[in-house]
Design goal:
This is DGQHR domain-containing protein. It is a single chain. The chain is an alpha/beta fold. It has two domains: 170 residues, no CATH class; 175 residues, no CATH class. The protein contains 14 helices and ten strands. An eight-stranded mixed β-sheet has the order 3-7-4-8-2-1-6-5. It has a two-stranded parallel ribbon with strand order 9-10. α11 crosses α12. The longest helix has 22 residues. The chain is elongated, with a radius of gyration of 29 Å.
């Protein structure tokens, strides 16, 4: 899209079809005038304006491919996501600083007074096509409160240009990593009790010198051959019932002893560092409760490395190469296999008279 293609931003040019017919007829629709700026970025120009969120909800439309398979290019609306935005606004947290990107349609009758720096358009339910921000706009529509929203408005775009702009926005932006979001939740003081526990346990494994996972954790991003905070949390959530009410300082030594025993068992196959494999790590965590119960029964709750090894080493010795994680194997499949293998080696008489 170059300057010649976009044309003069002073007013809009009616498109063909129904919009052209609509735009040529007199309208009783009210007009809205807001202060705006013309922004130039390379070969692109657009308006930058701040609009009330309830006004956006009344003047914006989206065409989903399911509704308009020929011309539509937007994604289907996720109502749950829109409702969560509405609740967020109504709860009073209400700051959504990201700009909503719109394309003015012919029926908007968009005009810009250069001297006054004022943008005027019709208050029509299809005045603007949403290029980016449909969930925010529909969230605004569901919300009871109204907030000021930064808006970018392109004018005189063809449908092809709107599609290219949509693709540019949705392919060149990178979402915030989930690992970073977990850190942000802590900084913003909105962690749940479970999230706080998992965060603290991870930090202990990441900083303690005796950690079974020393050098194998990545706190803020995903790295090959390392356990991310997201993977760690997902694994521990599966056994969180075992630590109800326990602080991180009590959870850490028990899990650390268990994981050290696991690494010793994996070492029998010369793959102790494979514990960082996400599927294997999650499978071993799912196995923890079963193993811990046997340690508790045999040793009165003394969760030492040696006591965990008493249960785990025979299990690891029985494992074959085919029992170890392979590409495409899920942690659920691994756990089911390991659970059967652990039970197969359990001898009631040996346990009773040990």
């Amino acid at each position: 899209m170059d300057r010649d293609t976009i044309g003069d931003l002073a007013d809009s040019t009616p498109f063909g079809g129904d919009d052209a017919d609509y735009a040529s007829r007199p309208s009783k629709a009210k007009t809205v005038t807001e202060r705006a700026f013309v922004v130039t970025q390379g070969k692109h120009r657009f308006y930058s304006v701040v609009l009330p969120s309830d006004l956006l909800a009344q003047t914006c439309a989206v065409e989903a491919r399911a509704e308009n398979p020929i011309d539509g290019f937007q994604r289907l609306l996720d109502e749950r996501r829109a409702k969560s935005i509405a609740r967020y606004i109504d709860a009073g947290f209400g700051t959504v600083p990201g700009a909503v990107v719109l394309s003015a349609q012919a029926r908007a009758h968009l005009t810009f007074d250069k001297e006054a720096g004022a943008l005027t358009f019709r208050k029509d339910p299809r005045a603007f096509l949403i290029i980016d921000g449909q969930h925010r706009v529909f969230g605004f529509k569901l919300a009871k409160s109204s907030v000021s929203v930064p808006v970018v408005i392109y004018n005189r775009l063809t449908r092809a240009q709107e599609c290219r702009l949509f693709m540019d926005i949705n392919t060149k932006q990178r979402p915030v990593p989930n690992e970073l979001l977990l850190d942000i939740r802590r900084l913003s003081e909105v962690e749940t009790e479970t999230e706080a526990l998992l965060h603290n346990v991870f930090d202990l494994f990441n900083t303690r010198k005796d950690s079974a996972l020393a050098g194998l954790l990545s706190a803020s991003e995903r790295k090959k051959g390392m356990i991310s905070r997201v993977t760690f949390n997902a694994a521990l959530r599966s056994i969180k019932a075992a630590f109800v009410g326990a602080p991180a300082e009590e959870v850490y030594p028990v899990l650390n002893a268990y994981l050290r025993a696991c690494r010793h068992g994996l070492g029998l196959h010369a793959i102790d560092e494979n514990i960082a494999n996400p599927a294997l790590f999650k499978a071993l965590m799912l196995l923890f409760t079963n193993v811990a119960e046997r340690v508790a029964d045999r040793h009165g709750g003394k969760y030492t490395v040696g006591n965990f090894e008493e249960v785990l080493i025979p299990f690891f010795r029985r494992l074959k190469k085919s029992d170890l994680p392979r590409a495409g194997m899920t942690h659920i499949v691994l756990h089911e296999h390991y659970s059967k293998a652990l039970s197969a080696g359990f001898n009631l008489k040996q346990w009773l008279f040990a």
